[in-house]
Predict the 3D structure of the following.
Amino acid sequence: MKLLKFSSLTAALIVGLSLATNTNYLQAQSILEKVRDRAKQTATQKVLSEADKAVNKGIDKAIAAPKKKSNGSQDAPVDPGAEESTPTAAQQASIKAFSKYDFIPGDSVIYATNFVGEALGELPAGWNSNRSSVTVSLDGMPDQWLRMAQGGVALTDNEENFGEDFTAEFDLLMHFDLQGYLPPSFRFGLLDSGEESTTSNGLLNDPKGAKSFFVEISPVADAANLLMEGYDKHSRYFNSGSQRNSLAGEWYGRPVHVAIQVQKERVRVWMDGEKLYDVPKAIPRQGNLNQLFFKLSTSSYTEEQVGVYLGNLKVAKGVPDTRHQLVETGRFSTTGILFDTGSAIIKPESSGVLKSLASVLSAHEDMTVRIVGHTDSVGGDAANQLLSEQRAAAVKEALESQYQINGSRLETEGKGASEPLADNNIAVGRAQNRRVEFIKL
């Protein structure tokens, strides 16, 4: 699939979406008409930065009907000669723009979903919600998304404990048709369901459980007020105080990546590559978090004026020690180097992993490594083999061009889907199998 050019003008078109119900479809059409009128007035607005243009290729139009997709993989077959298979200077710049990003995901995926295969217009199977949050497809964008309903709380279908040390990630897309009054605030967080099930109706009424924390985004024009709170059952354990963040003005109308790292009591949160919070004692130490929750408040805006979408959720255990694994054991495997769907374009949120690897290679100048790309099994063997080779080559190019690692120290190889680590029939397994390995030679 050839990605389309994304700008601040076309970003607004994301709100025209494909929904499975006629009501939501009519709302999408109404919003599209407003966007077209608005587009005429904003033709001279500044374009996004080079980094943003590299991350977000965008959308040119809203789709008129739901599009059926048949698999849950990011590794769909791709035209070997497709333009997106070769990183451009702008795409390399996008990685460099995340130079301060130090997030490294856990090394063992325990929960993942991109909503592909879920019925459009319905809540994903196994999830729980108190409002009509539904799965949708957005034209020109991969996978499927969960559209939050105002006044709604959504709980994932996860049933596993996350442990003391883990990471959580998801993509967030927010659009608000601002009319001079406050839009709804949005919360995302994690909780320990305690004696209740992870999808208990009681958690919909008050998503705190045995312990919890959340980040709240309260949008205002060209900015947002941010708040982080932690709870010991229903008693507030930590409060950051509300803080105005001017960078939030760049979050609206395009996908941004949210990353969370929990290490016992410590919680760190990144959004769009910026570290928002690093709190040593954000939550009580006892117990285990086991659920992600999302909450969109109510407002005077209609549903068609508000679009908050979630995509590409992933939770992974552990805190990888890149240096130990590569130097002492001779092998490091990561699912944290992410690519655009069906291509070898490295996403900028991969910068933390790349920087960590580059640091190890720089400290051990005599070390040479083989970079091995792996895919899941969806798609043809030949296409997956080629894609894995292209991704390994892209990682080598990034280490050379962005981190000045001598290319003579780096070999590349692709294994396609030939060496799976987990079950390719489930989303968690496919996410674990889409990985890049580094082997000391």
